[in-house]
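Q: My labmate handed me this sequence with no annotations at all. I'd like to see what the chain might look like in three dimensions before we decide whether it's worth expressing. Could you predict it?
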Amino acid sequence: MEPADARRMSVDQLFERQHFERTFTDPNRFEEYYLAYRCFLVLKEIKKGLAKDKTDKFGVRRYGSGPQFGMYAIVSACRSQIGAGAYETDPLDLVQSVLTKWIGFEEYAIKQSHNSNYFRVYNDPETGAEKTDWNFNNYYKGRTLVSDLKAHFDDGKGKQT
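A: Here is what I predict for the chain of 161 residues:
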């Protein structure tokens, strides 16, 4: 549940021993960690498939910016969707379920006033036309991500039924 921290690191750094020792501190949570890792692997495979689609290379039309910039956020959302002890859940089903809700999550995040550093609507000074600036790249590394994930997915808006 630290997707912004993970996003700010390179994959090589993320899987260094020192980060494992800091993150995986409770051996009783092994099944939880393992399911999260399996969700990560499933998501990597889904991204490979998206890369083959010339008309929607990153899956933005289907899933928003999550697969491109928010893989760790998606994995965190997967974790929040299962109850304690439900780690036998199929990671493919879990990831697909979260992905179907991802555009809704991003729409929620855009509307939050505390995210105005990442998402803004403004008038172009030269033309006067309304423009939008959505900076998902930085949002998925930002300080408001975890609270948005919890608010959106933990309060039932994104929960599996």
